[in-house]
Amino acid sequence: MTKSLAIEREFGSGGREIGKMVSEMAGIPYYDGNLMVKVAKEKGISLDLLKEYDEKNTGSFLYNIALFASYNQGGNQSKIYELYYEVQKAIKDLAKSGPAVFVGRCSTEILKEDSKAVSVYIYSSDQAKRIDRIMRTESVTEAEAKKMLERKDRQRSDYFKYWTEKNWKDRSNYDMELNTSTLSSEECARILLRAMGVD
Q1: For 105-115, how does the pLDDT look when each residue is reduced to its tens digit (9 = 90+)?
Q2: Domains observed in the chain
Q3: Is the dihedral of CA 55, 29, 10, 67 positive or negative?
Q4: 67-96 pLDDT, tens per residue?
Q5: Which residues of 129-154 are buried (b: 16+ CB within 10 A; e: fewer)?
């Protein structure tokens, strides 16, 4: 039986690329931050708000709004918690309906008790390789890539810490870790497919 795959990844490690590769090779669905957009639309939560605070821009959407809500007891606080738990429910329901690849959004923790899911932390011990990848994929300068790397990793770490109360880089959170400074994306995908039980 093919298991689902949940991925947390350093920015510039190639984790998203690997997730998409596994999805295509296994013939199973792929879900990332767009799942949050879908859930927000269904719940009538402002997409402008989502775009403003999502990790693609200024920071982790839920993390920043939760901090903001602690100072502003308006309607945002309840909406943000509602959205997080709806995303959590969506991930669990999708995993129950069949194997899939989930990237980010604390999916490794959300599916931690699911025996039909494998969790992995994808990182690179070679920062120069990460910077080079970011320069290529984001079309930015080396200086910009370095800033993006630091900002994105901090945002992902903060997001994970806020919603799970755990250290994002703690290896005990995951079934395995893969280092893309020594393994190619194709090698990582093959390792993960074996772990998922894909022939």
Answers
A1: 899 999 999 99
A2: 4-195 (3.40.50.300)
A3: positive
A4: 444 444 455 556 667 777 888 888 999 999
A5: bbbebbbeeeeeeeeebbebbeebbe
